[in-house]
Amino acid sequence: MRPRKYHVELTETERKELNDLTNKGKVSAIKIKHAQILLKLDECTEEKPWAVADISKAFNISERTVCSIAKRFVEDGLECALERKKQLNRHHKITGDVEAKIIAIACSEAPEGYNRWILQMIADKLVELKVIDSISSAAVGTALKKMNLNHGLLKNGVSQNPERNS
Predict the structure, then answer these.
(1) How far apart are alpha carbons 69 and 60 in whole angstroms?
(2) Most buried among 6, 15, 105, 124, by the most CB within 10 A?
(3) pLDDT of residue 86
(4) Strands (E), 3-136
(5) What pTM does this model have?
(6) DSSP 109
(7) How many C-beta atoms lie closer than 10 Å to residue 22's C-beta?
(8) Phi and psi angles of residue 84, each rounded to the nearest 5 degrees, phi first
(9) CA R_g for the chain
(10) For the purposes of burial, counting CB atoms within 10 Å of the CB of 144, is it exposed (0-12), middle (13-18) or buried (19 or more)?
(11) Torsion of CA 78, 79, 82, 87, to 10 degrees
(12) Is the CB of residue 69 less than 8 Å from the CB of residue 37?
């Protein structure tokens, strides 16, 4: 067993708050689980703190998650440790303007030699027109599906399967 990098030392007030939280039942499951984990990691009680591996097995989570909760507690405090980690880098590549271009291309005349657009051709066209740096055919399909445009039907002229275009 390696030594812990982040040591959880709860105050009496924090310990009471976490115990109350775990007994309430009107709190999100993730908050209750994180509270229980912090209580098991606490080094300021008469009981010996649990090992990270034991906590991982008991709560059916990875050891990395246990360490991450301890790290958030030490660096950012109790409230941050109780919540899920915020997803800061989540951004969506397909904006409303890109969606509009996808639809415009999908509804336009198909390229020469094709009866209708295929998803990869729409993706390539978006890059060619410099609407977006890169995009997958799956992302194009998702955008069309979101707009209720079924790319497999002839009514809007788009197909996912190139063999159906001849």
Answers:
(1) 14
(2) 105
(3) 75
(4) 117-118
(5) 0.55
(6) P
(7) 17
(8) -70, 155
(9) 26
(10) buried
(11) -120
(12) yes
CA distance 24 to 29: 11
**Mean pLDDT comparison of 58-67, 79-88, 148-157, highest-scoring range:** 58-67
Phi, psi of 49 (to 5 degrees): -65, 150
- Using DSSP's 3-state secondary structure scheme, residue 67 falls into helix
Distance CA 134, CA 93 (A): 9
Which two structure tokens, joined as six digits, stand for 89? 């880098």
Q: pLDDT tens digits, residue range 100-140?
A: 999 999 999 999 999 999 999 999 999 999 999 999 999 99
Tokens of 76: 């950012």
3-state secondary structure of 126: helix
Tokens at 43, concatenated: 């080094």
